[in-house]
Each structure stands twice: as structure tokens, then as C-alpha cells.
């Protein structure tokens, strides 16, 4: 897979997003969409596992 640069990932002051991708040993693509948003002193992180038509419930975390 081709790597992409990280330029501009932090252009917004209070929100970030990432897409992690990996292919497992059986050739299935696994992806996780991660979004982070700052609310005052709290950082909320939402992660949604997706890939090859597989959709799972999002995971939420407040730090």
C-alpha cells in the first residue's frame, strides 16, 4: 500500500480525523475511522471499525 503524508492533519484547532488501514493475512481490508474533538477540557474520541462490508458499532471515549 502507498503511504500518504501527514501534512495538514492538524490544520483545525480543535478537531482531528484519521483513517487507519491494514490488510490481514487472508487479504481482508481492515479500516478504522477515528475522529477526535475537543470540548473545553475534554477530548472525545470516536472510532468506527469498517472494512470489506463489515460495520460494527462505534466506540466512544472521553479523556
TrEMBL record:
GO biological process, one term: proteasome-mediated ubiquitin-dependent protein catabolic process
Residue ranges constituting the PI31 proteasome regulator N-terminal domain according to the UniProt record: 5-53
Xref: Gene3D superfamilies: 3.40.1000.30
Protein origin, superkingdom: Eukaryota
Signal peptide extent: none
Keywords: Proteasome
Cellular component GO terms, alphabetical: proteasome complex
InterPro entries the record matches: PI31-like, PI31_Prot_N
GO molecular function, one term: proteasome binding
Keyword Protease recorded: no
Transmembrane segments: none
Family that this chain belongs to: Belongs to the proteasome inhibitor PI31 family.
Family annotation (PANTHER family): PROTEASOME INHIBITOR, PROTEASOME INHIBITOR PI31 SUBUNIT
Protein known as: PI31 proteasome regulator N-terminal domain-containing protein
